From TrEMBL:
Keywords: NADP, Oxidoreductase. It comes from Kribbella turkmenica. GO terms for molecular function: 5-amino-6-(5-phosphoribosylamino)uracil reductase activity. This is Deaminase. Residues 6-242 form the Bacterial bifunctional deaminase-reductase C-terminal domain. One of its GO terms (biological process) is riboflavin biosynthetic process.
Length: 255
């Protein structure tokens, strides 16, 4: 069996486990961002920690993983891309230019997004991290050509959707990633769970209720089959603060 990076999930939720206010509005945008922040009362002894710094120190974590749903609303219409009329065969190979992949790591960090539908447009460049996109054989050629023009690295894993297990293994073998911190929403966390890829969970709960059937929660994805058991967790630590927030840290118990 090929080894894969450790996968640590970090998520902030309301007390009823919702990770967004509605399915339509992503948290990065107003008014959701402000309303979300207001759910956590300030406290002299806040439970919040920098999970990325923690896992960097603990596991040498050098990649963050996001779902496309964190960056683009489900009903969002991405800016149209020019049509690609060249030979597409080369596009469906990993794109890993050595001048980008050869950087020292750490401190170098991969900001990785799962995006088989080619929805994310990359308009910002950051000094301390590079974008990495996980795509599939179904990803439009126009999008892969766009990533190549923008010199954004990508790994091809899976057919209709990104095969997350394959993607994780490729991140390890192609880029030397030993630990991935998922800061995704429920859709990607659910897919990671069903693929048996979650090793640890940092969960911070705010003292508020959101409710709403269909509002993204900590782990969504496909339901369990009848008779299929839940994934057991072992509690590693719990912290509470005077504002009423709770931070839980679990490890997944493997059978
Ligand atoms: N509170 C928090 O800590 C937190 C953290 C992150 C996000 N959020 C919020 O949560 C909301 C987004 O949550 P969401 O559940 O809609 O989006 P999401 O978690 O981004 O889920 C969609 C992503 O999962 C991928 N995916 C889904 N099923 C898959 C499968 N079977 N195999 C492979 N990949 C699969 C999709 O890939 P494709 O793109 O390839 O289809 C897409 O990248 C937003 O409002 C965001 O602001 C909250």
């Amino acid at each position: 069996m090929q080894t894969r990076p450790r996968v640590v999930v970090s998520v902030e939720a309301s007390a009823d486990g919702k990770v967004a206010l509605t399915r339509e509005a992503i948290l990065m945008h107003q008014p959701s961002a402000g309303l979300w922040a207001a759910m956590t009362p300030s406290a002299a002894d806040p439970v919040g920690i920098d999970v990325l710094a923690t896992v960097r120190e603990q596991y040498g974590c050098n990649a963050v993983l996001e779902g496309s749903g964190s960056l683009v609303p489900e009903d969002g219409v991405p800016e149209e891309l020019p049509a690609y009329d060249g030979d597409t065969a080369e596009l469906y190979r990993h794109f890993l230019p050595p001048d980008i992949t050869g950087q020292a790591s750490p401190p170098h960090l991969w900001f990785t997004v799962v995006d088989s539908r080619g929805r994310v447009r990359w308009t910002e460049k950051h000094e301390n991290w590079d974008a990495l996109v996980l795509v599939a054989r179904s990803t439009p050629a126009d999008y892969l050509a766009y990533l190549r023009r923008e010199r954004i690295c990508y790994l091809v894993a899976g057919e209709d959707q990104v095969d997350l297990a394959q993607g994780m293994v490729a991140m390890g073998t192609e880029l030397g990633v030993g630990c991935v911190l998922s800061t995704a929403g429920g859709g990607l966390n659910g897919a990671l769970l069903r693929a048996g890829l979650i090793d640890e969970l940092h969960l911070t709960l705010a003292p508020a209720l959101i409710g709403g059937l269909g509002t993204p929660s900590v782990v969504d994805g496909s339901p369990l089959a009848v008779g299929e058991p839940p994934t057991p967790l072992r509690l590693l630590s719990v912290h509470t603060d005077a504002g009423g927030s709770v931070r839980l840290h679990y490890t997944v118990v493997r059978g």
